[in-house]
Amino acid sequence: xxxxxxxxxxxxxxxxxxxxxxxxxxxxxxxxxxxxxxxxxxxxxxxxxxxxxxxxxxxxxxxxxxxxxxxxxxxxxxxxxxxxxxxxxxxxxxxxxxxxxxxxxxxxxxxxxxxxxxxxxxxxxxxxxxxxxxxxxxxxxxxxxxxxxxxxxxxxxxxxxxxxxxxxxxxxxxxxxxxxxxxxxxxxxxxxxxxxxxxxxxxxxxxxxxxxxxxxxxxxxxxxxxxxxxxxxxxxxxxxxxxxxxxxxxxxxxxxxxxxxxxxxxxxxxxxxxxxxxxxxxxxxxxxxxxxxxxxxxxxxxxxxxxxxxxxxxxxxxxxxxxxxxxxxxxxxxxxxxxxxxxxxxxxxxxxxxxxxxxxxx
Length: 362
What we know:
Blueprint lengths: L1 E2 L2 E2 L3 E3 L6 E4 L10 E4 L2 H9 L6 H18 L3 H12 L6 H16 L2 H37 L6 E5 L16 H8 L4 E6 L6 H13 L2 E5 L4 H6 L5 E4 L3 E3 L4 E4 L2 H11 L3 E4 L5 E2 L5 H4 L8 H4 E5 L5 E5 L12 E4 L6 E4 L2 E3 L3 H7 L1 H4 L1
Parallel strand pairs: 6-7, 6-9, 7-8, 9-12, 10-13, 12-17
Antiparallel strand pairs: 1-2, 3-4, 4-5, 10-11, 11-16, 14-15, 17-18
Helix pairs in contact: 1-2, 2-3, 2-4, 2-5, 3-4, 4-5, 5-6
């Protein structure tokens, strides 16, 4: 995707073939800067501090984190230590474990002298697979948007959090269909949930849509149900950090409430996800998906830009008020109209997923 006329991915390797660059998403939308990752600890810190975020990108960053570790020390002990460090950063998004398991299995089978080169090649493969999967999600999802098109007004789409190219290597998951449809000339308007408490919608999704020239309006998180009641939402498309084999979807906190409102008002509720986000080991998302709880400060304080352009953080709550900060919730499969994957759209059921991914389900 493009920023200020230049094409970017969210993560790339330096000309030396070893050091890794990422976009510092914690500074967006008011400052655009990149970070240089020199070792595994840098990669783990970038994930943990949400300098990089989004399930697909977390997985790719984890893969490059293991590559950085193998570059510094390719011993079994170093690989295992790096694996454990990276895995502990974000517990909910299954893409991280998927990528780390794939990398570790490859590296521990290989001679130590070959591990660094193998690691970088495999991480690059994972990144390219992510781009291809997200673009395919975009193609399949754009067809759903085309079918919802009307002559009298744009297709109104509600999204939650950021599931665009910033959450992946490129294209994204829930926003990829929007980009594909917009480029195909389908009139679109996006309702952008602010997504408290980190406001990834108001900051990151809005930033992306401006860059792509897509019509959008930022709304308070609690406005979605009102819009649906008044027929102003044609479909909802969100992303996923982990999807069970039975079709339960774990996504940014607040997604469940959007699904309930959509169900009550007859608005189709779709989820865009690559197959790496499916956790075939579990069926009950509410019971079995670990929900990350982040710092209460993300709830009690908010960051923004002062009139002079300087970044500021202000306190929202009274002194002494405690807060809790659950990062995700689970939307039961019964509330999901369909899952948009790189192999097509399916029902949010075990049978639907197995039909598209018999090789993975087995």
